[in-house]
Amino acid sequence: MKSFQEALTWLYGVQLFGVKLGLDSMERLVAEMGLGTVTGVSLGAPADTADRPKIIHVAGTNGKGSTCAMIASICRQAGFRTGLYTSPHLVCFRERIQVDGELISEAGALDGLRRIRCLVADWNPHPTFFEIVTALALDWFQQKGVQVIVLETGLGGRLDATNIVAPTVAVLTSIGMDHVQVLGGSLRDIATEKAGIIKPNIPVVSAPQEPDVLEIIQSVCEKKRAILRVVSNPLSECAVGLPGAIQRWNAALAQSAVEVAQLAVSLEAQRAGLAKVTWPGRFQKLGERLILDGAHNEAAARVLVATWEELYPGEKATVLFGALSDKDVRAVLLTLSPIIAELMVVPVFSPRALAPGDLLRMSQELLLGVPCRACASLSDALNQPTERRRLATGSLYLIGEILALQDGTRPEWSSQ
Asked: Which of 187, 254, 292, 334 has a beta carbon 3.0–4.6 Å from 284's, enabling a disulfide?
């Protein structure tokens, strides 16, 4: 591979191997790439040894990205060299791996992917896309000598590739129904998978949860002798850079995670970090007339509606909507219905996209009395005249397309 683009082409081709939950490949990658110093797993070291970074491991259904961004922002303001690993990306693949707010360089990503490709060429089974990207991130963080790593799970927790690490603290954001085809068809099943990031004797911080979810978390903590702290109040005493009441709960969770991790962070650094935090695609305003929010499940849609009604009381939106076929699109549309004045169905560039014709029929069936129409393209929808604010939602892929269009670029696509 001579260029970063060639490396990306190879990496995206790995998606043909599909999603494979389990830690065997990651254990082998960590061992053969010499990543024990950054993860702690091959050294058998406790999470708080001085020669390795503190790791804040975050799982949940909604709010993971925002909470991770807040934790990382606080740590940076406190002067810690901070690595942030999240998924998916919206426009640029390198968004997934950041150190002190700077994306991994193309040269760094190319070098890492070259080494990984050579290493795994004859592996059977071959590592998945997400396993390779996780190894790339950990390798980059080790090279950069980070002091704190904020690590977001990709799917679930127990068998997620990120669960290879020995964390300083485990963080659980709001847990709800999503990825039921993989994680299980009940809330208790999903909670059990997410709670799989809890390690023996490692403290846990959780957002408020449904009773069944909290019961699962408490049970796992008891079995593993892990001290549990459940956030009981939203943050109220300082500004938060992300809008909406839910972000004050996420801010309280981030603040608690930093405290439980025993990081030396002043109150001033906490306040500055929360005030300056940014996170694209989560009630992101492009000017005053276009809002982007990648709400792709029912719980996220509820939060979006609450935030909209908080900021624009009594106002309805012209909604640009695109979705993937493996999501509960009906539930999302019904949840959004109180704030929809008219709906424009737009195509989403993904092999998993719900066909616009099917989405239009579903919308017309569910949103009685609401004008619904299909647009030939995203640009077509954005150019349609309207006196209302536009709200683009339903899929993070759609959000990535809009952000790329605004910047005059093309998104680097991935199916994960």
From this structure: 292
> Is residue 46's pLDDT more than 60?
no
Residue showing tokens 């539930």: 331
DSSP label at residue 59: E
C-alpha separations of 129 from 217, 340, 401 in Å: 29, 37, 21
- Measured distance CA(149)–CA(71) in Å, rounded: 10
pLDDT number for residue 415: 44
User: Which pTM does this prediction carry?
Assistant: 0.94
**Element (H or E) spanning 279, and its range?**
none
**CA nearest neighbour of 77 among 255, 265, 242, 253:** 265
Structure-block tokens of residue 143: 């090279």
Structure tokens at 363: 């919308």
CA distance 345 to 351: 17
Q: For 380, phi and psi rounded to 5 degrees?
A: -60, -45
Q: What are 216-261's pLDDT values in tens digits?
A: 999 999 999 999 999 999 999 899 999 999 999 999 999 999 999 9
Residue type, 305: V
